[in-house]
Amino acid sequence: MENKDLVEKVYSEIHDSEIVDLARRMIAIPSPNFGEGEIADFMFKKMEALGMETTMMEVEHPTEAKMTRQPIGRLRGTGGGPVLMFNGHMDVNVTMPGWTVDPNEGRFEDGWIWGLGAQDDKGGMAAAFVAIQAIVRSGVKLKGDLLYCPVATHKLGGTGTRTMLKKGVTADYCINIEHAANTVGSVIVGSVRVKIRTSSPGLFFRFTDEARNAYWNPVEQQAVCMAAVGSSLEPVPEGGWLTFKRHPELQDFPMIRYDAIHKDHYGRWCDLVFQIRTVPGMTLESVRRDVENLIKKLKKDHPTLDCEITIPANGPDDPFFMDPTELPRSHPLVSAIADGVELATGKPANVGSVERIGNFGDGNVLHAAGIPSVQFGPGNIKLYPEWPAPDERVHIDELLVTSRTCAYAAIALCGPNISSRGIR
Fold first, then answer.
1. Cα(159)–Cα(174) distance, rounded to whole angstroms?
2. Single pTM value for the model
3. CATH architecture of 190-310
4. pLDDT above 80 (res 424)
């Protein structure tokens, strides 16, 4: 069979009605973070019925006495080919006020599927499942295995994916399904969270001169730190306190955002937490060194500044620490996805950071573990004035592109004697 015929045979088994049906059924199952049990059971049955070797994996909360679960499925190939993973999360965002439809109805109207997880990430994972299903139905035999991993608790720093890796699940490539407007996210920011704790003796409105001279309000100390760090959601200037080389795909990064500040009424200390979205070349150690140098300079200018630093903010096992990722355009995974998008849309794919700019995902975790990963999928958060947003939705046309691209990439990377440039 000619390679083009092989792909068309698989494409003929991808039906928009089945993508819509599966996405709507997934949306109709509430799955808050660490509440994914019901959807895990639902997906387990779907995966097993398709013929995947499927296991249910328990996921433990990193700091609390909670458990959830996630199914891991393997469609085994004939042997001798690479393993391709499809990874995406089943937990959904918080329900923001302002919804005009039931967020768990899975409404389908005028080509749009509405609901929590529609584009983040239930719609994309439904499309990826239908792609694997189409390969099975077509009778096409791949040399390599396909892993389908609808993971739990992504919103807690990729805890489900981290658990999966610790339990030995691995692959040669990963397509991390994330809302990216079907652009190919080959360059992805990382994230380091920083905690600065400022301290001072407690003081009330009656005091001695000696006590007042030793006092510097911890909140006011944080104001000095914040002024030195800079403003939220503004590009950090080159030559400043952070050490980095500007990346052509990430011209506005690195960037910081203040996440939390807290002081008790009578407290002696104040905690400030901010995150830095990093660019390739920046590391945990380079950020730690830069913050330490900044604080040393501030203490030189303000001798009474009393502060300590914790990086990452939640300690050495902080699940929110992410290394940035980068794959060249020539990488087989990038080429396979880009070629699949072009075949599905008739237009060249947008490759780089594009619509994943500023975001990270479980692909960062997988990439850091040695699995080359690209973030790709339907849905664009630029539809909304804020994110998370009410009235989350995704269009079936996007889902079809996602499904066809996933099928193409699976054949290109894992198929019998097929290169990613030789299918069309």
1. 17
2. 0.93
3. 2-Layer Sandwich (3.30)
4. no
